[in-house]
Amino acid sequence: MAEDRDMPVIDLQDSGKRAALFERIRRDHSVEIAEDYVELIADLIETNGEARLVDLADLLGVSRPTVNNTIQRLQKEGYVESKPYRSIFLTDKGRAVAEHARQRHHMVLDFLHTIGVPADIAEADAEGLEHHLSEQTLDCLARATEALKKASGHGDNQS
Amino acid sequence: MAEDRDMPVIDLQDSGKRAALFERIRRDHSVEIAEDYVELIADLIETNGEARLVDLADLLGVSRPTVNNTIQRLQKEGYVESKPYRSIFLTDKGRAVAEHARQRHHMVLDFLHTIGVPADIAEADAEGLEHHLSEQTLDCLARATEALKKASGHGDNQS
DNA sequence: ATATAAATTTAGCCTATGCTAAGTTTGCGA
DNA sequence: TCGCAAACTTAGCATAGGCTAAATTTATAT
What we know:
2 copies of one chain form a homodimer. Chain A is built from 6 helices and 2 strands. In chain A, a hairpin with a 7-residue loop joins strand 1 (80-81) and strand 2 (89-90). Chain A has one domain (29-152): Arc Repressor Mutant, subunit A (Orthogonal Bundle). Chain A has a two-stranded antiparallel sheet with strand order 1-2. In chain A, 67% of the residues lie in helices and 3% in strands. Mean pLDDT of chain A is 87; it is low at 1-8 and 155-159. By secondary structure, chain A is an all-alpha fold. Chain A is globular. The first copy, chain A, has helices at 15-48, 53-60, 64-76, 92-114, 119-129, 135-152, and strands at 80-81, 89-90. Chains A and B meet through helix 1, helix 2, helix 4, helix 5 and helix 6 of A and helix 1, helix 2, helix 4, helix 5 and helix 6 of B. Chain A binds a DNA duplex through helix 1 and helix 3.
């Protein structure tokens, strides 16, 4: 069991590089919620014709005031638009983010299904993963998914 | 490319299921930081013999008081132990979490390398992804990595 | 031995995200 | 039309995670 195991080998010298990684994580967090909201708002508008605060709260599992707060932040940041007591709309910026988020969501889900993760677990994990993929990783993931599909179904592909 | 595309199809009926997914995300967030700290503390102890607050702060890219706050929370939650003005130690619980986190980190990194993500991008993405993988997905990911390695190098491709 | 530097802690502030309880507005039905 | 219920907002609170500035403690070097 004497592999290379860990080799953490921390350069206390240049901690800046490592610090930058964590900085990205922290930055991502604030974007994550925006993406979840915006994606859900897009879905609601498509299926219901409008996005109401009360539906968002139910679907997100948080209280109405919480949604209200966040919507106001998202409005300040230019993702959504809404007038008091009216339903919520996406700005162009918001729509772009929603579309992007949805693409990533589909891709991650497709990948997870392809490697054999059960549907419900895939749904849950995708929700967490989709916010942490760079464009390049997304590309590689798409190619890997294709490769795996071909490899597994080379004789006969089910589904 | 006219696939099934979106099909959001929101069940306003049972929003509980969807809400549970987001609840998991929120819960994960509080665990994420704990994992990052604990993993880093383990690395520091291995390489330096001890984990000092000042090194953690530098490596994480946050201020010393911030680390101090978090360490105190982690102590309350039973991950670490430290007496005032002394360096930081892991509890058994903390060591277990660190080991688990490290395994996941390695696995994610191995996978990302295998699908051709450049090393520096893989490092950055792994940092975000590793906290959002269920055990089952981790298993599937390990198998997929093996499959891809075999597939790409089955004749004798270089590296 | 003691001054000084380095490390840690405390105090006080900010923002984001949650909450409940208590107003307002809107809109529908009688 | 007008009252009431549902939807939304405001107010006030909590926690987590950031920060800077100012103690305080520890360790080092002369």
